[in-house]
Amino acid sequence: MTVRAQPRQLAFALPHAESLSRDDFLEGPGNANALALIERWPDWPSRVMMLVGPEGCGKSHLAAIWAEKAGARTMTAQALSVANVPGALATGALVVEHVQPGDFDERALFHLLNLAREDQAFVLMSGRVAPSSFAVDLRDLGSRLRALPVVALNPPDDAMFRALIVKLCADRQMSVDESVIGYLASHIERSFAAARKAVDVLDAEALRLRRPVTRALAAEIFRDDAASV
Could you tell me which CATH number the domain at 158-221 has? Predict the structure, then answer.
């Protein structure tokens, strides 16, 4: 995706809320297993599970659905410490997001896994790569991570990708027709992150230029040689 340089004007980006309710979750083949995991709780194969997938694939959305259902607290792996583990598990359910190699306290994560087992608490972790690939100093933590059940979220198919663009536009209260959706779907990389970035750019440019969001505007912004589907 390439944005063509144009004279700049000030555009005020208004806050927009992305709905994380169950009704607004986009279902597709790529996330069916992850959604099934959330919906069959507490009948899980393990009390600690991990969702793995690329940026923007819906991990946080699924975690939010589960957190509401299970009464779970939510925190990032980077905020986890040995001291705050007991409090984090106080409700018996915890979401730990952004679990990525080299970016968490190993002792804290090991303590969390042990305490969750002792207290029979549920923990849902999420990250971009499977924990079995993590290089850690604590040998016991490494074995626990390698044994951690993982459910993957995969890239979207064509129908899912189009639906994703529609949802992202709706979250920003952007009025678009099928021609805009079709153009974006065929001219940007087929990934969750690319869709989010494209909608952000299109919205910002429409505000800056004070123009409606049309296929013509999308064609002006995104070059025809963008990554194909």
Answer: 1.10.8
